[in-house]
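Example 3.2
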Amino acid sequence: MDRQSRMYVLKVAGIAAVYYGAAKLGLDLAFSAKSVTAVWPPTGIALAALVLWGYRYWPGVALGALLANAWTGVPFYTVLGITVGNTLEALVGAYLLLQVADFDPKLERVRDVIALAVLAAGVSTTVSATIGVLSLLAGGEIDAGEFGSTWRTWWLGDMGGDLLVAPALMIGVTHWPYNRAPGRAIEAAVLALVTAGLSVLVFTQSLGLTYLLFPPLVFAALRFWQPGAAGAALLMAAIAIPLTENDHGPFSGNSPDERLLLAQTFVGVACLTGLVLAAVLTERKRAEETVEHIAETLQESLLPSRLPEIPGLEASVDFRPAGELHRVGGDFFDLFEVDDGSWAVVMGDVCGKGARAAAVTGLARYTLRAAAIQESRPSSILALLNDAMLRQRSPEEFCTVAYTRLELGGADRVRVTVSSGGHPLPLVLRADGVVEPLGRFGTLLGVVEEPELTDFTAELANGDSLVLYTDGLTDAYAPQRVITPEDLVAIVESCAGHSAPEIARHIRGAVLDGGTHEPRDDIALLVLRLPARPQVQEREIRTVLAREPHAASIARERIAELEPVLGRVLMGNVRLLVSELVTNSVRHSQTGAADEIELRVAVFPDRLRVEVSDRGAGFPRKVRVPERGSGSGWGLYLVDQLADRWGVSREDATRVWFEIDRD
C-alpha cells in the first residue's frame, strides 16, 4: 500500500472514530426514540469532512454511522437504513454547498453562511430525517402517529450539528493560525471566561436572561471574526445543552425533547448571528483592501514610477497620502526633460479626493507635459492648463500648481524660473543656510479665465537646494498644530549642507514627529540640490615627528617648501602656529617618549588646513589670555588670534587643527 492509500485509510478511520464518539454523546440525549436526539453532532462532522476533504471519504461517514447505531437495539435493517440516510445527507449537503452555492469553508462571505444554513442545515438534513424515521417506522420502533414529531426532532437535531459543529470544524481548519483578526490572546482568554460565566448564569436561572449572551457573541465576532463567532457559540452550546438536559435554565419545565430543541435552536440562531456579523466584517475588510489596492495602483499611474536622473543634480521625493487607507489623493508631482534640454519640475494640489480628483490630476499632469513642448515660460504653460480646466472641469474643481523650469548651466550653475498658480512658493536653501522663497503667488487654476501668473528667475549655485511642497506639509495637523512660514524656514535652514534625501527626511520628520494622529491632508515634498564641488587639494605635507625638544624646528623645515605657494606673510603665520602646536604636543601630551606626533598640512584653493595629532588625553577648547612676561599659554592664544577657525577633536588620537583662508 503506497503512502497516498495509507493516508486515505487513516482519514476514513479517523472520520469513523470521531463520528462514532460524537454519536455516542448525542445518543445519550435521546428521548423520543433510541436513535433520535435533539442534538446530533455527527452531522456537522460528516459535512465538514466531505467539504474539506472531498466526497470520496464517504465510507468514513458510513462506517461511523453504522457503528453508532448498531448498539441502539433496533433491527439491523433499520440500522442500515439510518446509515444510508446519514451518509446520503452528508453527500447531498457537500454537493449542494460546493456545486450549487460555490461554497467557501472559510465562511468569510455572507452568502456562504446563508448557504450553510439553507442548503446544508435546512435541505440536506431532510434526507437523513426522512430515511431514518421511515427506517424506524419499518422496524416498529415508532408508531405512525409519532412520525411527524419524530421527524421534526431528527431534522432539528441534524440541523444543530450543521449549524454548530460544522462551522467550528471548517473554520478551525481554514483559519489557522488565527492571527488575522485584530483580537489578542489575552482578550480571547477574558472573553472565554466571560462567555462561560454568563452561559452558566443564564442556563441555571429560570428567568429569561438569554439576551445576556449576545454581547459577548457580538464582541467575539468583532474582535476575532469567524473563529471567535464559532468558538463562542460552541462554548455556549457546551454549557447550555447539558444544563438544559437536566431541566435547568430558561427552557426548564418542558418535556426533555422540547427543552433540548429550544436550547439547540437558541444556540443555532446565536451562532448564525455571530457568523453573519463576522462575514460582514470580513467582506468589508476585503472591500477595503480592494479599494486600497485600486487606489495605490491609480495613484502610482498618476505619479512618476521613479525620479529621473538630472545631470549634476541630486533629487529626492517624499509622498504620503493621508488617511488610514492609501486613498487617491489630490497632491501630485512630476519631473521631466523638455525637448530643448531643460527640465520641468511640477508640484500641484487638486481640490478633493477620490476618482474626481484623480481625473483632474491626470488632466493637469498630461496637459503640463504637452504644453511644455509648445511653451517655454512657466506662466504661459500654467495659462494653458487653466484654459483646459475651464473647458473640462466641474465648477467645484480647481488646482494649485508650482511649475519650475531648470536650465542647466554647467557643473556650478542652474538657472531656475518659477511660476505659481496659487501654490506655496518653492524655497531655495543656499549653501550658507539662507532660505529664500521664489516668485509670488498667482491665481488658482481653473477658476477665472485670465489668471494672474508671473515668472520669477533665480540661480542655484554649488551647495544650493530647491524645496517644493504642498500645503499638506504645513497643515498636516491643522487646526491643532499649524507650521507657519517662519517655522518652515527655520526647519529648512537647519538642513544646510545636507544631501537631498537627508533634507527631505529631516523636513518630514520635523513636521510629522510631533503629531500623534494620521495627517489630515496629503503630503508631497520634492528636493533638488546642486552638490557642492569637492575641494581640490593643491598640496599636502604629512610628516611624523619624534616627541623630542627639536620637533618644532624639524616641523618648520618640513613645511618650508610651501612658502612659494602661500607667500611670505601667510607662511610666517603658518610657521609660527605649527611651531606652537608641535611644542605644546611635546610638552603637554603626557605620552611616552616612543609615541610620535603627526603633522598634516593641506593646501586648498581657498584655504589652508593644519592638523597636529598625538596620543595624549586631549584638552577642552578653552583659551586664556596669557600674562605679559609669561613663558606659557601663548600657543593656543596665538592660534585663536591668527587662524580663521580652529578646534580640538578626539577620535583615535587627539587632533588640534586650524584653518586660514587664502583671501
